[in-house]
Specification:
Elements (H helix, E strand, L loop, with lengths): L2 H5 L8 E6 L12 H18 L3 E6 L1 H4 L13 E5 L7 H7 L9 E7 L1 H14 L3 E10 L3 H13 L3 E3 L1 H9 L7 H9 L8 H4 L3
Parallel strand pairs: 1-2, 1-4, 2-3, 4-5, 5-6
Helix pairs in contact: 2-7, 2-8, 5-6
């Protein structure tokens, strides 16, 4: 894929990494639409494994907030990094940025929690480093829907693409003749559950 198409929001399979931000057990009862965004996150994690897209995972204060939820199989992740900083870009992850996609990383697909805190601060740092950021709205949430939706507005203002899990998967495939299409098909056969985004999309 040419760089001009990447500029206009397309994803290049060999130049893209997935960043999974802090989807941990202790957050489950506190966050809006947690179970629904978890379904979208599960699709993305499975797609990263099938398409061999590198996956980077962080966990916010895992001693207090627990590990990544068991429903997400992150065994293929490049690394699972504990942190106390809100942004995912701790020194270990910053080092990974230079090695992902054989040093040719251009796009980051970012999803997790909370949208207005860790996700937003991560996106800002990635944009600052010259990377194109795609924030997956149906795989991000916050405690309040107001914080979540306003975070998406701010993310668009700083230059991120706000997208959905299904859009990401189809962009990475690019063609029905993709060699992994049959393996991906079960992930996109069922429509993602409603995650409360209608109020946001009606304003676009």
């Amino acid at each position: 894929m040419s760089r001009s198409l990447i500029k206009y929001g397309q994803l290049a399979e060999k130049r893209t990494a997935f960043f999974l931000c802090d989807i941990q057990e202790k957050f489950r009862p506190a966050l809006s639409h947690f179970e629904q965004i978890l379904e979208a996150a599960k699709k993305l994690v499975q797609a990263s494994r099938i398409l061999n897209v590198p996956l980077v995972v962080t966990e916010q204060n895992p001693k207090g907030l627990g590990k990544t939820v068991a429903e997400l199989d992150i065994s293929h992740a490049r690394g699972v990094y504990p942190k106390t900083k809100f942004s995912m870009i701790v020194p270990e992850v910053a080092t990974e940025l230079g090695t992902l996609c054989d040093g040719k990383l251009e796009c980051v697909v970012l999803f997790g929690i909370e949208a207005h805190v860790c996700v937003e601060q991560t996106a800002a740092e990635l944009c600052y480093r010259g990377l194109q950021v795609h924030v997956v709205a149906d795989a991000c949430t916050s405690r309040s829907q107001e914080d979540r939706l306003l975070a998406f507005e701010r993310l668009r203002q700083i230059g991120c693409f706000v997208t959905t899990s299904e859009a990401v998967i189809f962009q990475l495939l690019g063609d029905k003749e993709h060699p992994n299409f049959a393996d991906i098909r079960p992930l996109i056969k069922t429509v993602s559950p409603y995650t409360g985004l209608a109020a946001y999309t009606s304003k676009i």
